[in-house]
């Protein structure tokens, strides 16, 4: 597990008031070349366009209790989280995207209200993240 978790994140200024992008400043291992993006389309319930508290709570638990707790053991690294106008995205770099997806599904299947889809970018090696931030 990554130590000093809260100290390693940085917020990115965006031109969109309805967007929150945070990313980790930590070193990205060269072996983690494939990018897995976990996407959840949430219902926009207010003018701010952010997820409701129960959605935020579920995905906070997903991140802190599942992803970060096991990222070293399972050969993946959460590098960014983007919340923007109805879409929650987790950017995860990994060695084995199939194994990572299977691991993430263990938690995600615990609540059918929060369906996710996965996008895989093979041999990304950090380029999508560089474009994002």
Automatic annotation (TrEMBL):
Sequence ranges assigned to domain DUF695 in this UniProt record: 24-125
Name of a matching Pfam family: DUF695
Top-level division of the source organism's lineage: Bacteria
Protein name: DUF695 domain-containing protein
């Amino acid at each position: 597990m990554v130590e000093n978790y809260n100290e390693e994140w940085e917020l990115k200024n965006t031109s969109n008031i309805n967007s929150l992008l945070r990313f980790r400043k930590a070193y990205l291992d060269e072996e983690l070349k494939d990018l897995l993006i976990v996407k959840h389309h949430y219902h926009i319930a207010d003018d701010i366009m952010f997820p409701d508290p129960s959605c935020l709570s579920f995905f906070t638990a997903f991140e802190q209790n599942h992803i970060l707790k096991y990222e070293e053991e399972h050969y993946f690294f959460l590098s960014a989280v983007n919340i923007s106008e109805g879409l929650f995205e987790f950017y995860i770099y990994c060695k084995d995207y199939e194994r990572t997806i299977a691991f993430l599904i263990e938690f995600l299947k615990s609540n059918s209200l929060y369906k996710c889809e996965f996008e895989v970018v093979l041999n990304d090696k950090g380029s999508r993240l560089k474009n994002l931030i």
